Amino acid sequence: MTQTADETKTTSFAETALKLSGKSDDESRRTGAIDQADDDVETLFARNYQTSASPAHRAVWDDASVPVELFNLAPQPVPPATAKVMEDSIKVVQRLKETGQLYGPDGKLTSSVLNDLASVGYWGLLVEPKYGGTGAPFSAFAPFLTRMSLVDATVAGLASVHGCIGAVDPVRQFGTPEQKERFLPEFASGRRLSAFALTEPCAGSDLTALRTTAVLQGDQYIVNGEKLFITNAIPGRTIGLVCLIEGKPAVLIVDLPETETDEFQLRPYGLHALKHTHNMGLIFRNFRVPQENLLTPAKGDGLTIAYHGLNLGRTAVCASAAGNMRTMLAGMLPWANYRSTYGAKISTRELVLRRIGRMAGLIVAADALTQWCSSLIDQGYRGEMECIVAKIFGSESQKEAAIELFMKTHGGRSFLHGHLFGDNIHDFLAPCIYEGEGEMLGMAFFKSLIKQHGVEFFEPIGKTLYQSGIKKPNLANPAHLWLLREPMAKYTRWLIGKKLRGRPSPQWPAMPEKLRQHAEFATNALSRGALEISGVMRKYQLGLADRQCRMAEVSARIQTALIMLCTSLYAARQTDELVRTAGDCICQDFARSLTGKRPTDREFRAMTKLGEGIRDGGFTAIAGVHAAEILMKYEQ
């Protein structure tokens, strides 16, 4: 699909709007570059799978009923070949963990672990069979990461680094036939594990601040620059290197040498998170890369490539969080059943039972989002907005679970060496930054949500003002009012129609009454969102970009309604009654966060009763999950 002349004008006007709001030419240009990259990614997808056709966008803006069928996606059967690789991989990690061979003296995963996983096909799960991989559907791969996280979170994380945000996805999606033949078999076999080198000392959320350059000399690019916080990038690996070529972002597939050289060096540093894998800075000084290693997307540049794989990685963050929270919940129960205060076990106390029930609810919601987003990606959707929701919820829920639920239940022992919390707290918190910091992503979600509405109704007003040289319109001025009569009439018709028409009720599948009520509440909240969001745009107009707090707040409420809808439908499909109850209880919490109401005694009782059922072993979602031993029982 090619970009139309109108789309080109839209991007240039976005830059003009920023200038009109007082932004510098440099900031306007940088923001425009990010907008253009987003537009270019959109063109990779058929129109009915782009952001404006996504379930999240339609749930807010469509006049038709909320597309429930796109929120109620049941898992598809896992292909036998994929299932075998997954089961064999789990067994490999379990065996090595039981025999103490998972980590070396340096605390890192050993090369034998990586090789044993390669031998059963672990690294080729997302590579097509014709290149030696399994070609796993993403809706099978994502929940598999949840399972692998229960055995070892680092091994699960490396599968995402390699297959989702590493070099695998860029070559699969943007490589030439020759590049695919050259690189993908190496990735699938595990002979070359991969990473993606994007972040720099001065370039994180602002990808327009890249400084690493590549200059073509003959048939080779000469690379100079430094990368930072690159997981899995050590000598002998292959990276997708984001750099500037002739001033524009580009991606080179780079085989790192087996040892450091004058041209390639590592920059080690102290890093609390990711302690079981390698995370280093990379320094390139006149480093040579063959010209044929340049990826050339049909549309856009290196930012297009970088943005494409992020949605896979964001879903993977949520999937891994679902596994890590299971491990925490499994670890809470034996301690709660052992620890006594004032003559009674703390597992009988309301506060502890509430924590147990809340943890279960977070797990169910994370499972729901993992299944939803991965299924949408398999169907061909871009999934930008949905995967942002999953990433934010998964990472923030894991943070809450670790600190508010797990740590507070275990008390001071949480900080002992050898305790799950004390040893892993940085890894529990770091996903709030991975794949984009949460509030920044929330604003990106909001921007995607308002983009089409802005282009259709607000941009014509802005263009008219810009072309007339009017910076501050005054509707009390007849000349201004006359000038804006046509674009304002179009918006007024939409506004009145939205207020008067109402919205048809969705056709709900068979589901328990409580869960159906939650789903209805969520869809009503999403339907009201259109008028509220449009009102925010109308109020702040060109100044909206500086109202970050307002954008983040509105975005968070829309996200909560989407999570509530997705979770209620997911819970209704489950046969485990405690999973359904956990879905009901967490949806009650979501509803209160949207209404500001206080919890009722009935809701407290429901949550503590859920905690009792989980305490007594009825929650199948953590069946078989290994619980860490209780440390220091205070017994002689």
Name a few traits of the molecule:
Butyryl-Coa Dehydrogenase, subunit A, domain 1; 636 residues; Butyryl-CoA Dehydrogenase, subunit A, domain 3; 4-stranded mixed beta sheet; 20 helices; alpha+beta; Butyryl-CoA Dehydrogenase, subunit A, domain 2; disordered N terminus
Topology:
Blueprint: H1 5-20, H2 25-42, H3 55-61, H4 80-98, H5 111-119, H6 138-151, H7 153-163, H8 168-174, H9 177-189, E1 194-197, E2 213-217, E3 220-231, E4 238-245, E5 248-255, E6 264-267, E7 279-290, E8 294-295, H10 302-338, E9 340-341, E10 344-345, H11 350-379, H12 384-410, H13 420-429, H14 438-468, H15 478-483, H16 485-501, H17 513-540, H18 548-573, H19 577-595, H20 601-615
Helix pairs in contact: 1-2, 1-14, 2-10, 4-6, 6-7, 6-10, 6-11, 7-10, 8-10, 10-11, 10-12, 11-12, 11-18, 11-19, 11-20, 12-13, 12-14, 14-16, 14-17, 14-18, 17-18, 17-19, 18-19, 19-20
Tally of DSSP β-strands: 10
Assess the beta-strand content as a share of residues. Answer: 5-15%
Question: How many domains comprise the coordinates?
Answer: 3
Strand order of the largest sheet: 1-4-5-8
Percent range of helical residues? 55-70%
CATH homolog superfamily of the largest domain: Butyryl-CoA Dehydrogenase, subunit A, domain 3
pLDDT < 50 stretches: 1-13
The H/E string reads HHHHHHHHHEEEEEEEEHEEHHHHHHHHHH
CATH topology of the largest domain: Butyryl-CoA Dehydrogenase, subunit A, domain 3
The structure class reads: alpha+beta
Cα-based radius of gyration, to the nearest Å: 26 Å
User: How far apart are the first and last residues' alpha carbons, in Å?
Assistant: 73 Å
- Largest sheet data: 4 strands, mixed
How many helices? The count is 20
